[in-house]
Amino acid sequence: MMKKTLPLLLTFFVGVVGAMGYFVPAGGMTKLSSTLNDFGIIIAAVAFVLGGINIVQVNIPIVVRRRPDWGYKLVMLLSAVAVLLVGFRLHEFWAPAQKGTVAVSPVSDLLVGTPEAADTAIIVVDGAPRDLLVKIDGKAVLDPARPGEPARMPLRARVLVEKDAAGNVIPHVVNVSDTARTTPPRYDEYEVSISLVAGGEATVKPKLTYLLGPEGQPYLWLFNYIFAPCNATMFALLAFFITSAAFRAFRLRNVESGLLLGAAMLVMMGTIPLGAELSQTWLYRLQEWILSVPTVAGRRAIMMGAALGAVAIGLRVILGLERSHLGGD
Amino acid sequence: MSATPANAAPRGLMERLRTMDRRWLFLFMGLAIVLPIFFPIGLPALPGDATVDTYDAVANIKDGSRVFMSIDFDPASRPELEPFAKSVLVQLKRKRCKIVIVSLWEYAPPLINGYVRSILQAPLNPGGPPDDPLNKIYERKTDFIFLGFKSGKQAVINTLGQSLPTAYPTTQEGEPVGTIPIMEGIRSVQDFKDSGILILISAGFPGAKEYVELLSRYELPIVVSTTAVSRTDLQPFYSSGQLKGLVAGMQGAAEYEQLVNPPGEQLGKKGLDVLNIGTLVIILAIVLGNLIYLAERRQQKRAASGGGAS
């Protein structure tokens, strides 16, 4: 009894509370309805996990037993695993606690005995990969030999040592990040604040981690160069099949099909700029009228009918008269 | 592509067309799609009333307002929706608007992150004056935020109407929404009613139709860009005033792009030539198919009356 009764009771409760949330403005009812809504969001997220498990459960036996098309199933499973692995932010597990080290020396060999030692210090930045962008106090360190290009590491930059009104040394901020802003960065970012004495030197060694996850380059490469073209191609095939179907099936057999054909031709010709050009826009106005008046009238009628049908089905589900959602017999 | 037996009677033109291998049609359609990309015609699009209403609705919001965007499409719908998505982001950037972006489609976030990087976080007019708003680099969390994808379909939309932080408690990077400066004072999408607008870019379910069905009771200013096949679903809402604007299909997106005139490559304009020629090919295919059908019927009638007479 509980196998059927409990789910029916639950359906009744959730359906009634969900509907009452719209009609009863009392705070308790609205909050309860909102909580059930949140349950729905969580269950929808769990459905993704269930879907993934189901794919594995269904397809692994086919691959193991070498059933027909097992090769395609294997490709699908391997692709799913590959995307799953690069989609997780796995780099967060092996990223070092410190993204870099700084060694400060009060004396720089380059400045010893020079007049610059009075007010200048040296910042050395050395790390891999070498093509990351280094900014000191917000200003990019550029390569003098290649105008506009960031200097490659290891690099040495001279900085002025300044003090504030209280006589404290103003620290310099060194930022190391991936260069391009319009493509996703390959590595995470490192920023450190260094206080230097005049004539001194600081050596910064960043230890940046290659980024994985939904913003990582591997994932985006798979998305942009494999998934997106395949997804777009499946949709693009429609153009060819529509042409073939239009040639073979869109025929003037009777009055009704003639009306349909006529309206379709007018709308198609009126939609494209060529039609508007050739007809001095009357075709365009006609297709706008067709889409705004008779189409909307028909569409509204269908939507109202569908809404009434949804109410009827919903009532049947809530009252337990419709049990197809329970599965089984 | 079709073989004729050596001893068969010669076939008429109509018969040959009727039994033509469909791969000729595919080839013709393929050329019609590919050639305009390499040899653009450049016919202008006549902006329709619905597109102009959409443009005006966005243009009339106050500069610097906060705007809510739901971008719900996948790579399959890019040709129809991407020109609008990019154009409206440029238009909002010109108005220095702050943007809150969400998504209900799991394949949308990589596309959205790409638009953010290439439009919001990039200078679009490098040679222009330094105070050109198009050159501003939008800061994440203060000028814009992308809250990410959330599964749950209508449940999420319903919750957005009551409590945005409940629908999106954290950003896609895991930061609590309450700590994001741009989200200050926003309890739900109703808070965009007076200061801003809701822009929905939707390819199907869940999307604009569900937003309108579930949130229209709050009387929010909503504009929508959708695919051409979904236009009839949303046209009743536009006609009744529940939507302030409706941009449909590649045609509408190209019209909108023409109105905004964003810098750089204009995909809608390119796509319009393909749409022109492709539609003409379909019209020709329909006309040819009907000519063949009418010729067949006439032949059958002649054969029937000729057989009856003898």
Short account of what is shown:
Chain A is an alpha+beta fold and 329 residues long.
What does this structure look like?
The complex is a heterodimer of chains A (329) and B (310). Helices cover 53% and strands 12% of the residues of chain A. Chain A is α+β, with helices and mostly antiparallel strands. In chain A, α2 (27-64) packs across α3, α6 packs across α8 and α8 runs parallel beside α9 (294-318). The radius of gyration of chain A is 34 Å and the shape is elongated. The two termini of chain A are 15 Å apart. The model of chain A has no long low-confidence stretch (mean pLDDT 88). Chain B is of the alpha/beta class. The radius of gyration of chain B is 25 Å and the shape is elongated. Classes of the chains: A alpha+beta (329), B alpha/beta (310). At the A-B interface, α2, α5, α6, α7 and α8 of A face α2, α5, α6, α9 and α11 of B.
Describe this protein with a few key phrases.
heterodimer; A: 329 residues; alpha+beta; four-stranded mixed beta sheet; four-stranded antiparallel beta sheet; 8 strands; elongated; B: 310 residues; alpha/beta; Rossmann fold; 2 domains; six-stranded parallel beta sheet; 11 helices; 11% strand
Q: What is the strand arrangement across the widest sheet of chain B?
A: 3-2-1-4-5-6
Distance N to C terminus of chain B: 39 Å
Strand order within the widest sheet of chain A? 1-8-2-5
Q: What proportion of the residues of chain B is helical, as a percent range?
A: 40-55%
The chain pair with the largest interface is:
A-B, 60 and 64 residues
Q: Residue share in helices of chain A?
A: 40-55%
Radius of gyration of chain A: 34 Å
Low-confidence stretches of chain A: none
> Rg of chain B from C-alpha positions?
25 Å
Count of DSSP-assigned helices of chain A:
9
CATH architecture of the largest domain in chain B: 3-Layer(aba) Sandwich
Q: What sort of overall outline of chain B do the alpha carbons produce when their principal axes are compared? A: elongated
Strand content of chain A: 5-15%
- Report the β-strand fraction of chain B as a percent range: 5-15%
Mean pLDDT of chain B: 89
Shape field of chain A: elongated
Biggest beta-sheet profile of chain A: 4 strands, mixed
Spans of chain B with pLDDT under 50 lasting ≥5 residues? none
Distinct helical segment count of chain B:
11
Number of strands of chain B: 6
